[in-house]
Design brief:
By secondary structure, the protein is α/β, with parallel strands linked by helices. Helix content is 39%, strand content 20%. It starts with 5 loop residues before the first helix and ends with a strand. It binds 1,4-dihydronicotinamide adenine dinucleotide and magnesium ion. Magnesium ion binds next to strand 3.
Amino acid sequence: MLTTPDSLLKYLTDVTDLRLPDGHFIDGQYCAARSGRSMQSEDPGRGEAFADFARGDADDIADAVSSSRKAFALWRRTPPAERGRILARTAELIRRNSERLAIVECLDSGKPIGEARGDVSGAARTFEYYAGACDKLEGSTFPLPSNYVGFSQFEPVGVTAHIIPWNFPISTAARGMAPALAAGCTVVAKPAEQSPLTALLLAELLVEAGLPAGVCNVVTGTGAEAGAPLVASTGIDHVTFTGSVTTGGHVMRACADNVTRSVMELGGKSPVVVLSDCDFDSTIANVAGAIFEHAGQICSAGSRLVIEAGIHDRFVEALGKKARTISLGHGLRSPDMGPVSSAAQRDKILGFLDRARVRGAEFISGGQVSANTESGKGYFIEPTIVANRPEDDELVQEEIFGPVLTVQKADDPVHALHLANSTRFGLVAGVFTADFAKAHQLARDIDAGQIYINEYFAGGIEVPFGGNRQSGFGREKGIEGLKSYCKVKSIAARIG
Ligand code: NAI
Ligand code: MG
C-alpha cells in the first residue's frame, strides 16, 4: 500500500509552486528560443505533458557558445580558490532547494521521489567534491639535467559541451558541469528533451552562488535540432556525451570533423556474477536493486545475472518471489519502482519481451505492461526476469534499458568469467562471493571500467567511472574526471 503526503500529491494537478523554467538559460538569464518555438515535457508516471520548454536550434546554440567563449577568458583566470568557493556555495544552494529539485526531477523523469532525492543529494556532493579539488590540481616536475628546469601544469580545455540523457538528468548534469567549472572551463549543456528542467535550475543556482554570467549556459531542445549543432560547433573544445552507442557514434563523427576532444559514456550490459558461497539474502537484495532501480534505465544497471549452477535454482526462485512483491506507481507515491521514461521506451522494451516469448523464453516474473492502477495511464512495465538464456540471445547481448534481468547459468567461476566478458560492452560488473581471492581474480579478469564487490553501485563521486569497448572511453568522477577537462602543458627551460 503506497501512502504519500498531500503536500506532494498536489503537484499532480498544480505545479505553480515549483516555478518551472521555460526558457534556455543563456548569459545568466532565461530567454525564449530565437525561433519562438517551444515543446512539452511529459510526466511518464501519467503519460501526460506537464511543462513547456524552449525548443532550441542552431541559432540558440550559437548564442550560448559565443557567451561561453567570451566568459572563458574571465573564468580561466579566476583564482582556483575563488572557483572553489562558488562551487561550494552551489552545493549549499542545491541542498537548500533539494525538495523542489527532487519533485521536479520526479515529475520530469518519472523516477520515485526517494531516488530523485538521492540524485539531488548526490549532485550537491559532486559540487562539494570538486569545490575542494579546484586548488589542488598539481602538475609534475621532470628530472632533466641540472641546467634545465622542466614542469607541467594543467590548463582548462576551454568551452565544453555536455549532452545529457534523460535517465539521470541532474546527476549527469552535475557530474559534467562541476569538474569542468572546477578546471576553469565554461559549459554549454543540452539536456534530454524528455527531462530538461533540472539542468536549467542547476544553471540558475550556479549564478545565484556567484558564477559569472555566461560561464554555464543551458540550451534545451531535441538531439537533432539542438544537440547536433552543439557538438558540430567550431566554438567548442570538448564534448562530454552520455547516451546510446548509436548517437555516441554520430557525435564522434561530428567531433572528428573539428578534431574536438570527447568523453563517451555509452551503454552497458553489465553482468552480476553470483558464486555459490555468496551471502544469500544480501545478494538477492543487491541483484534486485541492480536491475529494478529506476526501472532498469541505468547505463550501469546489472542486467545479466551470471550465476553458479549450484545455487541457481534456489536463488532464481527467491529472486522471482522478490520481483513479484515490487510495487509500481507514480514516482510521487514512493513506489518501489516507477515508470519507464516514455511510450517509445516502453515499446522498445516490449519489443524485446515479445520477441523473447516467440523464441520460447521462460519468464520467472513479469514480462508485461502494467497499468498504473490509479489512473490507468503512464508507462509501466512489470519487473521482469527471464530464465537461462544462451550466450548469443538478444536478451544477453543487447542493452534493453528497462526492468528486465536475463539469467545465465555458469558451471564454475571460470565459466562465469567467460560469460561476464562475452558482450561488446564493458561498463561495470558486480561480483558476489565470500571468497576474497575469487572476488579479486574476477575483478582482475573482467573487462569493465569498474567492479563492485559484494555491493552493487558501491562507491561515490570519489571513484572514477566510465566504460571499455563499446561502453565508451574517458572517465568521469574522481580526480580522473577533473583531468578530463584539463590539458597538460609541459614547460622545459634551459637555465645556463
Ligand atoms: P540518445 O543517445 O539518442 O540521447 C541522449 C542525448 O543525446 C539526448 O540529450 C539527445 O537529445 C541527444 N542527442 C540525440 N541525437 C543527437 C545528435 N545527433 N547530436 C547530439 N546530441 C544528440 O538516446 P535515446 O534515443 O534517448 O535513448 C535510446 C537508447 O539509448 C535507450 O533505450 C538506451 O538503451 C540508450 N541510452 C543510454 C543511456 C546511458 O546512460 N548510457 C542514456 C540514455 C539512453
Ligand atoms: Mg519529462
